[in-house]
Fold:
Amino acid sequence: MGRKNKKYHKNLHDQAYDKLTSMQAFGESKKEAVLNGSDKNKIFSFNTYKTYWKHTKYFIRWMQQNYPEIKTLKKARAYVPEWLQSRVDQIDKNGNHLSAWTIQTEAKALAKLFEISPDDSDYFSPPKRQRVNIKRSRGEAVRDKHFSEKNNWELVCFARGTGLRRSELEALKGGDCKNIDELYMRMEKLQNKPDITTKESQELKSIKDVLDQFPNETHFVWIANGKGGRPRYSPILGDHKQDIVDRIKNTDPDKNVWEYVSSNADIHGYRADYATMIYKAYARDIKDIPYDKINKGTGKKYQGDVYACRGDEKGKKLDKRAMLKASKALGHNRIDIVANNYLRSL
Structure:
């Protein structure tokens, strides 16, 4: 006799794969999904999907080793807190724990898999991401020993001057550079076009945004498909700006500017250098930022444009306006991400 419930023929691995695959909503608007409440069972970025699937497989493997009698995702859901706690307690051969960043990513991956909301009683609250605990680009890593900045100086300068992610560097084409006059002409053309497409509308918004944030910069790099599929223009900065412009302009429009980007290159670190350069260039002295708002509780004025750092950076104050410029150039929209992950030596 066959089973009454056919779906249980699949093992946990296959069930999890089918579940996450069914959630793929690449290209859809996350903002609209949040507004209509359908975002809980959707994954909007391919990179996010890959990350969630990777950590889901870790969980499935742990379940198969420790609870082989559990055959369905419905029953496996109850073991999520136990597995995540085991990850918090895990120590590698060097005596190090997994980073809080990794644990939180895994919590989000399983919350997505099982559609667990943050206010659900089963939701696991992992350690918060503290700036002091983020290991990425905080010093010399093992991989740095396999990458010579001296031998790859052009790539290093290029990454520091554009702030591009690794995937964005690898996708950059020879035609992806515009000077400010070209941007104004492109903006005018798009504004006067009667039947503008969605893609062109996104580009028009990107042009207006970068001209608003960086009206005095001269050259910009075009990122057609950034994180989450969001396009943007970012200013080209630094002492090697002209070298960067020449490298792009001297590449055929249909050719990659970089045929190979070493996996050992500290691209995140170079993005941090880029963000810090922008902040230093545009930040006002904290004492010069006006007290422009009034606290409803105390009636006292305060500086609405001042960001108060937290955690190990508690007591440090930053200029929100300059932070926003750095955030926009990097392809983010939240200044706290810049404060916690990119700004250095301030």
Remarks:
- The longest strand covers residues 219-223.
